[in-house]
Design brief:
- This protein has 1 helix and no strands.
- By secondary structure, the protein is an all-alpha fold.
- The chain has a domain at about 1-25.
- It is rod-shaped, with a radius of gyration of 32 Å.
Length: about 60
């Protein structure tokens, strides 16, 4: 391989590498996903029984 061919090959590889870096740098960023709604609870236990008035839903009974 002659010196001229080697230099041409290196220049072509440099151009291809630069084009790849530019293509990756200009790729569109993904759109951020909306945050899910938060659910707040007065206690961690789910209670399916009706609570009497004035009872503490978090006392664990």
């Amino acid at each position: 391989m002659s010196r001229r061919t080697a230099l041409a090959s290196l220049a072509a590889l440099a151009c291809i590498g630069a084009a790849a870096i530019i293509a990756v740098g200009t790729a569109p960023e993904p759109e951020p996903q909306p945050t899910p709604p938060r659910v707040y609870s007065s206690c961690l236990a789910a209670d399916t029984r009706p609570m009497p008035a004035g009872a503490d839903p978090c006392d664990g009974r």
